[in-house]
């Protein structure tokens, strides 16, 4: 949990220092940015799970945009009211150092690479399944 609080702390201070936002706007920006981070992390994990199963992907029907937006709103509410609004990450004794900033940037890049690798593997699996069904 401390790692996530440190991530929120670093995001908050990025918005405070570099974007020159006020306290309330920085909290909102931190909640939105961390929600996108959580969404892409969960989506990447879900795609890896579905890659190793028989099913190619989660079928959300024709109205998939609605379900994605609904999930993101629920995730944002959960993230905001449990982690950001209580401001526990600001009460911790974290320091703004370069090492922590580099680690967070590295983790974000690593998750992005895994997301792209997972998408490519899943695409290859879908193409192979289509080729198998065309021959029958």
List keywords for this structure.
single chain, 136 residues, mainly alpha, 80% helix
How does this model look, in words?
The protein is mainly α. Helices cover 80% and strands 0% of the residues. It has 5 helices and no strands. It has helices at residues 2-17, 23-52, 64-84, 88-91, 98-135. It is elongated and about 60 Å long.
How is the secondary structure organized here?
Layout: H1 2-17, H2 23-52, H3 64-84, H4 88-91, H5 98-135
Helix pairs in contact: 1-2, 2-3, 2-5
SS summary, helix count: 5
Strand content: under 5%
Q: Name the poorly predicted regions.
A: none
Q: Give the N-terminus to C-terminus distance in angstroms.
A: 51 Å
**What characteristic shape results from the CA principal axes?**
elongated
The quaternary structure here is: single chain
Précis, in short:
The protein is mostly helical and 136 residues long. It is built from five helices and no strands.
